[in-house]
Please model this.
Amino acid sequence: MTILKIIINKFLILIILFFCVNSCKGQKIEHPEFNGIYQTGEIGTIFYLKNDSTQVFNVIRKDGIHINQFESSELIFQNSTPMLAITLTAIGKIQLDSLTSKNIKKSLPIIFNNILYSAPLVQERIQGGRLIISGFKNLEEVTKIQKLIAH
Model:
């Protein structure tokens, strides 16, 4: 009787798996997008720096600053290179202060639409709530990110 129960249980599991796999065919599985500033760690989602694929970062979503905390952005140029000056919300300022104070001498990846644009090394705590992001290849790319921030 025990062997029969085992066979029936395995058969039922196979039937359930068959229906699950067939019902999911053709459906796109959504992965959460990374949009903001994050921490790195030993374990996390692997990202390669857009302009230098030899730089690899394990990105942790916990305690990050989501793009919703970006209050405004301004296009600026430094030596003809387009950059974004970001001003954070009041909550974003607190988050940046906390994030930078806990990550001195560590990189903080800046990711938009799952693309790692920059991973600056934190030299000191940032309290002002304003930062400049570089690492864009051209003006079109910066404009695209600026529209994303404007949501």
